[in-house]
Amino acid sequence: MHWQAFFFDFDGVILDTTQIKTAAFAAMYEDHGPEIVARVVAYHREHGGISRMLKLRHFEETILGRELDGARLEELAADFSQRVLEQVLAAPPIPGAIETLESLAAGGSPVFVVSGTPRDELQRVIDGRGLGRLFTEVHGSPPLKPAILAEILERRGFDRARCLFLGDALTDQRAAEGAQMAFLGIEPPDDPHLFAPGTAVSRRVFVPHPRELSMMGRS
Q: What is the pLDDT of residues 183-208, one digit of tens each?
């Protein structure tokens, strides 16, 4: 068996941007004190891969306990985007990512970006880094990752068992498992034990053969 299609998260899988975004969320809430910042950062790390809109709503309504309307949510999202965009455009790639994508593109493999980053911002970063030629399609939020995967799989008619998702968050793993796809976890440097035992993990981006993937589960 050989892989039929490949799905990549973006932050922490293609570009090393995770710490940039963690620092931005922390800075946005630093006026509320270290306890609030710690809760914000913990939630962000535990829910990597979901939309920033969902995170911001949780920060405001659950952690700070204040009402949040649509206009204020958009304002917070714009603030976050302004804090991170230029740094993301300059961020280094995750080891192995560009080489892997170049190889897949050269072989004509279908490659999809499935990210929690807003679609327009994601496309701006991809265009700014000259990466667009490496992807068949680019998908950001909204919608959520499970819905994106379901739509692509239905429209393209891929064999789910022959699709590989590469992600650095538990939400990525859950999305892949929900879609009945294979999954390779890219270990975050600041959380090397994020994925449960039995999960295939790597610190470097590469595409293992399906048989190799089945033997990679961490102990």
A: 999 998 878 888 999 999 999 999 99
